[in-house]
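Session log. Operator J.P. requested a structure for one protein chain; no other inputs attached. Running the standard single-chain path with token output.
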Amino acid sequence: MSLFLNPRVIALAALTSVAPFAIDTYLPAFHILSDDLSASPEAIQQSLTFYLLPYTLMLLFHGPISDGIGRIKAMQWGLLLFFFASIGCVFSTTIESLWFFRALQGIGGGAGSVVARAMVRDLYEGAEAQRVMATVQILFGIAPAIAPMIGGLLLGFHWQGIFVFLALYGAVAMFMGSKILPETMKKNMLVPISFKSIVERYKMLSKNKEYILLILSVSANFSAFFIYVLASPVFLIDHLGFTTQQFGYLFIPTVTGMLVGSFIAKKTAGFVKPSLVLRFGYYFMFFIALSNLLFCSFMPNNPIFNIGFIALYNIGMASVMPIIALAGLDCFPKIRGTAASGQAFTQMLFASIVAGFLVPILWFSTFGLSIGLFFLISFGSFTITRTKLWKS
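Structure written below.
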């Protein structure tokens, strides 16, 4: 059976996609929310922050909780909270109530993605694990592409329809995870849950050089692309001359690049040594980032090249992500949930730092953005070449 039709893989992808749907589906509704809730555009923008901050912080806890009470229960509690918080958003009549329920969505929304990441390695080994992780990544990559379109369609009814959709999606993902996925943490495998024990586990993670280098590298790779996502209004409109209706000119090619890279990771699993795919991916990303830097230094802006380089970069990024993610989880086979949390948190933290500090400094021109891409992939290359995975 094709992995795309495998019920377990579909369930894992559904759990992983809760977060991007929660972030991207309601973006088209910002202006309508501003009118209906009598709130400023800045206040509506803050509803995204109220989601992202608790989401990022809770990434540290979903994994340890799943190591202690089981993967399925941790997923169920998180998505149950997400469901009721989404209903709360539907009935929000003030910006303050929307902030509150978005924060609750953030607290529960990351449970599915962390648990799914750990369960891939719980359920599968070797090349099969790489193929499954790559397939989940392909399906996950589709979510942010269709989420704004779904949100735009639902706006034809009312903005509340977007949060009804999110509630239903969370419920369906929870149902699929509960009915299709087996509990992979047997009673004799559970570890104690307490703040002290969680701190001890993270101390253990922080002392493993291989794990730290792996998650720093994959976080830098993703953040290099994320610079362009965060700077997209300036990049597309001010520098490349597109309109607000033409954001798809960036999104569609870059998502396509991610899908191609994920397909490469899937097809090479079991046939090509992971370290060879890793080297190819990093050499390719570095070459594309350098080409982008040189083009932006000496040539006038041209959307085909400026966007094309980012799409090509994503091919390399997506081809190595499953390999690095699985290697990180394999550093701690007894507490994979905690290891998955550490990966997800570091990636979000890196992206947040990029959003808060690098992007405002670099978006003065396409050249500035190309410097950011080159700097981050150089850092990612520096860290990955010091791992055992690279040398294997």
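Operator note: The chain has 18 helices and no strands.
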